[in-house]
Amino acid sequence: MNTAQRVAALPEIDSEFVQFWNEVLAPKFLRFKHILVDGLSRHSEAVFPQLPVHWGDRVLDVGCGFGDTALKLSELVGPDGQVVGVDCCDAFLDYAINEVNTKGVANVSFQRGDAEIALPAEAFDFVFARFGTMFFANPVAGLRNMRRALRPGGRMVHIVWRNRADNPWLSMAKDVVLEFLPQPGADALTCGPGPFSMANEGTVTTMMHSAGYTNIELRRVDAPVLVGNDVADAIAFQLAIGPAGEVFREAGAEAEEKREQIEAALAEAINRQKSSASGIVMDSSSWVISATNPAH
Ligand SMILES: C[S@@+](CC[C@H](N)C(=O)[O-])C[C@H]1O[C@@H](n2cnc3c(N)ncnc32)[C@H](O)[C@@H]1O
Which domains does the chain have, with CATH numbers? Predict the structure, then answer.
């Protein structure tokens, strides 16, 4: 029996970024789900025990991806609570719905939507986003929509990457690839501003104020993350997703011509990294940003 399904869709006007998530990134994210969910979870696991979520709450998970955080949130709200996951990408929603149905979870539903355009207006008690907000082309609009989805006094938490220097798992491979290929041009196809768009503490605090939040707090979380089960997996991951992947993709034929040299250089750099039982790990660092929708 289907317990989860897509409920009434939000307005669907796909921006170029939403199209990019669906057409270019979704297959790559599915291929490297083992790396992404493992790594991103290190940051949410650090905050889940302290989230201001209670039994019976209504919770919105923005940019919910594969649905694993929506499932975790559903445990926190219990059977009388509700979790709605919103994402702009069909393949992620299909995966999430299948997971929820397979597990027989009754209090989670999903909607397709662009958070910059609209979010469900249900006066949620809590809004959450793990590494989804940095891709907003208009971050204040997206953050404001998240605030408007909250009841007065409702709380939100979103997790974003800190600076490049503290995130070698994303930045190191780009530096290597740029030894062989040019920087992407201004007209490069992208999924939005990118992983470091909310890295600056002052800038992201100003965005949050402009979106109408109060009680804005940033907490730093550092965690080693998996970048591949082995060196070949790590190279394939870096050339598919993230900043290095963008340089490689945008360089087109030139990248393919130089693939052998690039892969050799990446192998050398990746071989210098630490390894764990599951594979190669590198350092990462995030901001956990919490805030309130003021009551008045
Ligand atoms: C890096 S992934 C993180 C996914 C998930 N939250 C996680 O932590 O595994 C970013 C997610 O945000 C979604 N996304 C990006 N821009 C969005 C937007 N404007 N509206 C809704 N979802 C968006 C993407 O489709 C993707 O699922």
Answer: 16-292 (3.40.50.150)
